[in-house]
Every structure is written in C-alpha cells, then in structure tokens.
Amino acid sequence: MNSVVAFMLLMSYLLPYVSPKTFSLLSVLSLAVPILIVINVAFLLYWLVQLNKKAILSLLALVLGISHVSSLYKLSGKSTDETENTISLMTYNVHTFNRFDWIDSETIPQDISRLVKTENPDIFCAQEFYNNPDIDFSQYPYEYQDFNNDNGELALVIFSKFPIIKKGSLKFKKTANNIIFSDLVVFNDTLRVYNMHLQSHKISPNTDKLAKEDSEKLLGRIQSSFIRQQEQIDLLLDHMKTSPYRNIVMGDFNNTAYSYVYNKLKSTGLADTFKEAGKGFGKTFEFDLFPVRIDFILVSEDFDVVGFKSFDQELSDHYPIFSRVKL
After folding, report:
1. d(CA 95, CA 7)
2. How far is residue 61's CA from residue 164's CA, in Å, rounded to a whole number?
C-alpha cells in the first residue's frame, strides 16, 4: 500500500504539465493529490515510530515534491502592519448569499457584508454574486458587474476603491462561468485585475451523496469540466498577452494547485500569495474528506506579498481569502 500511494504521488507531480485535452483521465488525479500527501505523511510517521527504514520511501516521495506539499500546508506565514504603498485584495465565492437556504441562517447577506467591511480590502472580487437587498458594499465607489447567463441573476463583480478606466468580459460560451477584468488606476500606476470563475465540476462536498453517484457519469463529468477549464484558461492567457499592465488574477479556479490550469497561469510570472505569505492549510472550500484550496490570489512576481489571511466563517460553501501586496 505504501509503495502504491508513493508511486501515485510521484506520478501526480507530472499532472501540471499534462494537458487535459490530451489525457483528461489522468488530470482527474489532481483532485486526489491532497489525500495522497496526507497518506504518505501518515506512512512516514508510522515507519518512523517503528524505527523502520521503510520510512525512506514516503520521505523521498514527499521531499521530491516539496512544492506540492507546501501548496497544501504552510508551517509559517508572513504578516505585517505595513500599509505604505500597499494594496489589499480579497476574493470570495459568496454562493448567492445563501439565497436557497443552504445554511441555516437568515443573516448571511448581512454577515458577509460585515466581514468585507471589517477587512476593508481595497479590491474585492466576488463570484456567484446575487443582488440581495440586504447586502451593503457602499464603501466601494467603483464596481463592475457582469452577468454571463440567461437569467441575468448571478454575476462576477469587481469592487474597487480605485478608479476603473477600462473593463470587459471574456464571455465564455454555453456556461454561467466566466472571467472579467478591470484596469484600475492605483497610486501612480495602472493594474489589470481579473476575476475568474472557471468551469464547475458539480461535485457534492458531502461524501455520502458523492458515494451514491454513478461513478462512470461522475468521472465523465469531471473529465469534461477539466477540458472546458483548459479552453477557458487558454482564452485568459491569450487575453493577458494583450495587457499593457501588471496583472492580478483572483477567484474560484474550481481546481487545485496541482492542476494544469494553475500551472499555466503561474508560468506567466504570477506568484501565489498563499505560498508567499500564508499559514496552515489555507482551506477555501468546504469538503468532508480533506481541506481543499481552490480559490486563489495570484499577483505579479515583482510585487512583494506582505500578508495573507484565510477565514473559517461558514457563510458560504467557500471561504474568503485576503492578501496585502506592496507595489
């Protein structure tokens, strides 16, 4: 068993470089990487307690993929009160502000509004946004909403304390998922901010419900969504090439830090703010089996990431993340 999971973990290190269009079945394995890491850590500790040299197998597998391990868990973070020449960023999939009562609470819109006001990010990107009468983001003088669906209800939104001089949408076809952007005048510079919500897998976070699904249909749906995500990220990469400014990409990737789409984005010269300054698991999605990080804040590598924070308030099926960067 130890040999099998160690080999699978080693194989998973190749996943960020394998196109889903070429081998979509292998790409599905990227969703299991956190489990493989945890199991290998368990085997390592098991053999160490017994002073058995078999511990070397999982130790080697983990060391060879240390960047994967640090994407799952960070021992120490970075935090500073420095605010001069810095901007604060937040992204949050608000899950329609509990419109259909997924959470047993009647104050979710007000609670989310209060959280955002307390953290007071300079730029706030929201996904699955619904214009609820009880929300209040009046602290932002500038905003851009885009509805990429037939019913005109769910939107991607960029809220900003900085003037927006240009905005636009990539307008994905035949899906409510999308990517939007805004060019913001920040101090004496101009930055382009992308708010993204890649194709959803429609996987239940509840393991009991997940176990009842037809495995063949579930696998086919995930493979299909991985291919759609690759098409969507290719559109974004082409669009970013036309950007005359430094880029910030935030949002719900619906994929992990072990995926092809994440790797393609990082390779454009973007830094993951969690890996730069985060601590702990950095969980952004509620899943029964293990902590999942599928929401990201990526910034140009020439920014200095001076802080990162994740939250544990259950106000959505996602958790917000917050970062401060120095220009």
Report:
1. 37
2. 47
Q: In terms of DSSP H, where are the helices of the chain?
A: 2-12, 24-27, 33-49, 55-64, 66-72, 108-119, 207-212, 215-241, 260-266, 273-277
Q: What is the pTM of this model?
A: 0.92
pLDDT tens string 17-41: 989 888 877 777 788 888 899 999 9
Which pLDDT value is given to residue 151? 59
Per-residue pLDDT tens over the stretch 218-228: 788 888 899 99
Neighbouring C-beta atoms of residue 11, cutoff 10 Å: 13
Q: Residue 284 is encoded by which pair of tokens?
A: 């952004």
Q: In what order do the strands lie in the sheet with 164-169?
A: 164-169, 178-186, 189-197, 246-252, 295-300, 270-272
CA 196 to CA 233: how far, in whole Å? 10
Answer whether 194's CB lies under 8 Å from 179's CB: yes
């003088």: which residue's tokens?
A: 141
Distance CA(148)–CA(250), nearest Å, equals: 18
Helices 33-49 and 2-12, packing angle to 10 deg: 140
Residues of the chain with pLDDT under 50: none
Element (H, E) at 168: strand 164-169
SS3 assignment, position 242: coil
Give the separation between CA 241 and CA 237, rounded to whole angstroms: 6
- Please state, in angstroms and rounded to a whole number, the distance separating the CA atoms of residues 283 and 104: 22
Helical H runs in 83-214?
A: 108-119, 207-212
CA atoms within 13 A on the CB side of 224: 11
Element (H, E) at 158: strand 155-160
What's the CA gap between 88 and 119, in Å, rounded? Answer: 9
Phi then psi for 82, rounded to 5 degrees?
Answer: -60, 130
Report the alpha-carbon distance of residue 49 to residue 47 in Å, rounded.
5
The number of residues making up the chain comes to: 327
